[in-house]
Amino acid sequence: MHESGKDNRKYSVGTYPLAIVGYVLFMLFVFFLYVFFQSRMILIFMCILTLMPFISVCSALFARSFVDLRITGNSGNTEVGAKNLWRIELRNRSIFTSLNCEVKGSIENTFMGLKMPLVVDMPMSAMGTEHFDMDMESEYCGRLRVSIESFTYRDLCGFISVTVQVNSDSTAFVMPLYTVTDRDDMDTFRTGVTESVNSVGKGNDFSEVTDMREYIPGDRLKDIHWKLSAKKQKLMVKEYTAVSQSEAVIFCDLGANALANNDIMGYAYGLSLAFIRELVPVRILIKTGRDMEFEEVTSATVPQLETAFKELMTSSIEGVTGGNLNLLFKVRPELRSVVLVHENGREIVGEVTERA
Amino acid sequence: MLKLLFQRKKKNTVNTGIKINENSERNQSENRVFTLFAKALIVFFVVGGAFGAFLSAVSVNCNLFLIELVLLAVSLFTAFLYYNAISENVGYIFLLFVMAACGSSFMQYINSGFYTILNKLNEKTAVYFDSNAVRVYTVMNGDNPAYVTMAMIYIGAVCCILTNIFISRRMRIWPCVAAVIFAMFMPLYIGLEPSGIFVVMLLTGFLLAVMIKKGGHYRLHRQDNKYEYKKERYTYIYSAKTLFETWALVLVPTIVVTALIAAIFPGNSIHKGTKDSEIKTSSNDVVQNLAIYGLAGLFNYYENSGGLSSGRLGGISSVRLDYETDLTLVYTPLSENRIYLRHFTGGPYEPFFNRWTVDKFLSNETAISVKGFVESGGEYSGTGKMSVRNVAAEGGGYLPYFCPDDPVYQLAGSTTEYTYYTSFAAPTKIAESRYALREKNDLTEEEKAVCLLVPEDNTAALDAIIKDAGLDPALSPPQNAMLLASYYQANIPYTYRPGYTPRNKDFVNYFLMENRRGYCSHFASAATLVFRRLGIPARYVEGYVVDATDVVEEGKIREDLNTDDYYSGYKMLADTAVVEVNVSDSGAHAWVEMWIEGIGWQIVDITPASAEQPDANMWRMFLNFFNGTGAQSTIAEADDAATEAAEPGMASRAFVLMFEIILVAAFVCFAVYMIYKYGGRYVMESRARSKSVNDRVIHRYGRYIRKLSKNIEELSGCINYREQLDVLSKNGYQDPEEAEHIAEILERAGFSNEDISGADEKLILSMIKNTKKVK
Predict the structure, then answer these.
(1) Cβ-based contacts under 8 A for chains A and B
(2) Is the separation of the CB atoms in B305 and B316 below 8 Å?
(3) Which ipTM was obtained for this model?
(4) Is the pLDDT of residue B283 over 70?
(5) Which of B18, B181, B217 has its CB closest to that of A99?
(6) Taking CB atoms and an 8 Å cutoff, what residues of chain A touch B243?
(7) From residue A134, how far is each of B10, B12, B30 by CA, in Å?
(8) This prediction's pTM
């Protein structure tokens, strides 16, 4: 919030020469009418025409310090295809009004590296707040960043425009819609994750109970804590954290196709969830836009998985092309095998791939 | 298909995969009634301000408050017509009916009110120009404020409707500004100032419209969504709050400035002590012409339906008489001689300006002499009374010969009685009598100088005529007058169609040297200057004449009036009575008054005789056929409805009314039919024009298919493009080889977000341009 006289925001003033010339010509015409008629009515008209530009321009310049703009989002997280409300608020604490305030900014999916400009024309009412609400939904997962860079308003006579640089932004994560992985598929994946298979065998449980929570459909029956459930009169399940180093490594081979990338992320999310429900911790890797750099997150519980995906999506995959598995094995020599999630033809598939 | 396109437009998909629904269900709407209300107020301020300014400047007696109230109501009504498509279409048809019905029912009152205002303005203009040439329109019941109010309400309502179209749709104020300048031109020119409150209204309305236009958010929409997505930006549609705040920002300084200037220059004080600018002074003639003849006066060319021109010459191309009553005279005929009624007397002639300026002296010495002769018991003389009623003639005096009184300025509808003196004795006898009575009968030097004034520019033409006609200063004035009359009769034909005098040419010179034909004004003007050139004081006179035949054919004996009250003395007619004679513009005439030393001013009427008929006024003939009254109502109509009802024309008038109703009804039906048939298509086409190339192509294709469906019934059963194209191919309207490609383009245009290429568009357009079978 900027107080009067303490406004340090950068601003610039533009002029509209054609409008000024047109106005001056009209004033000359009115002056001619006055000389011709010598009428009081024309004199009043001339005075108003002389006065109005000063009022208009000065008040527009004066109002600069009294106008604030910000953007807010109503929630930090959303899902692909779900609506999310964003609001641009234009607050004017002066008595000056403008019939056209152009707000310029951008909407960016920082993860996918997609950006679109956002231009909103808003009214600027005196001593009031105007807002523009955007019901926004994203088809792709990622981190959405809506930022406002500047706003430009014109004076009432249309002679000048004042552009004020602002820096207001708001972000939200769009979580991928995951696909439920088939049990058969899971058997296939387990073969590539031998250490994990051992860990779930009888007497070889490397995990320990870290938390208790309510039953969610899909939870394994063996995880139900019957005694506690009887006491609480509702089904409670045990949450495990893997204590061993055994984990499933999922590599999302993202490419240039945003739609496919979105599906890959969704597939990986579903697969990770399936592993976690089977108490197999997961390590998820993606190739970022930077050379030779892979973003890596690990997760052993469902809440951790969500955080892990958010962390993944704070990086950018802009410029990434597919087929990075070999590079992954090269820069991560400790990996014996990974579950490769990638686009195969028009399908998204997960395959256990071992180091050659 | 169109519905699908619009639905698709609502959500804006971009390559980022982000969709923004601009019509958020949460709070992105505003009741558009408020914005319509704001626009209505602009219309009201502009129209109400302009009408108030005009009426307050001209100081016409009317109910200004009621006018403003009705204009506000009409402004609101017309603005709210744009609430939705139904209200717009139905509302305008309703308005058309109401305006037509009001116009038809109250035409006389509206006309009367309108002409009252014009008369008032003309009166003030005449005072400003110090001129007696005033155009006066016939009105009913004098200056009735109710009629003025009615007229202003009606005209104001029409202006509101028109202004609303400009303001509500496109916020175009300049046509209104031009109209206001046009309407206020004359009041401002003659120094009439409008009331401050209306100036404030007018200026506020104007400035606000300009500012809203500059703001760029004024387009008409028919939904309550506050924002729309247009040209890759989200833009607000309504913000009544901001509009009203802007209004306040404009209104406050306007009120302050107006109050300050009104305090410094109250009333018309700004004009006091200030001299007119040179531009204004130089425009006086033009504006005076404009005031008298309207716009045509600017070009020195104006239609004339007869009547007088008050010394302004050359603008009439051909005389068209309306034969409507201009004056009604009540008097006792004494002889078969023509009776002259003097209206305008010209003093100096202004060449190239083509006008006679008023003779300020208006010497009545001769009339005084005749009066003296009659009162002293002179032979063959008498005293008469003449009642002159101005029905629809120009305002001014209509003085019979010889009346020593000053003429009474008569507006239409007024009646004046003059006492005149007549003598059939030889003029010399009257002169002798005067000398015996030792009365003065000489022109003053100043008056003589005016009546001998010949412009330098005319001398060459006059000398040529004097030579041709054999005139000579040595001859007596009557001899010269007779010679000139003979010359005119033999060499210069009388015509009702002389053509107008070209600009930059002098009227008299053009008549004498080039055109050599004309009507009474031409002959009298030239003769006046010829006599002056010969050293005979002369002056140009305009007025009305009544011939004995007019009395016989048109006159009505007033048996209710006593002859003795109207005349006493010598009569040439053995038996006479008081008669009422209507004088129309066919009686308008121009003649010369020549000063004969020892006798005084004598009428010299040297206009040659002619059998030519004036041009027919087709509109007048049409109205006369139905016994209508034309554009100007007459006093006779308004005064006595009972008399009118007894007239045989009443049945025809009902027919005219019926005819008008049928005409209006037919027009409305036609308009409704046209809107029904083409309105929807026009709207769709105009919408399609502003859409993307895909929408345009699909729209044109749809129209093409609809057109061909009339010939090929199968087409109406087709459910997609491919089927349609198959049918077209089968019927020979489409090349089968191209059909597949065209179907593909159409599907892309119809269902894809991707725009089709220019070449594809051309291909489709060339296909649909040709509605004939492919050979």
Answers:
(1) 187
(2) no
(3) 0.76
(4) yes
(5) B217
(6) 99
(7) 13, 12, 16
(8) 0.60
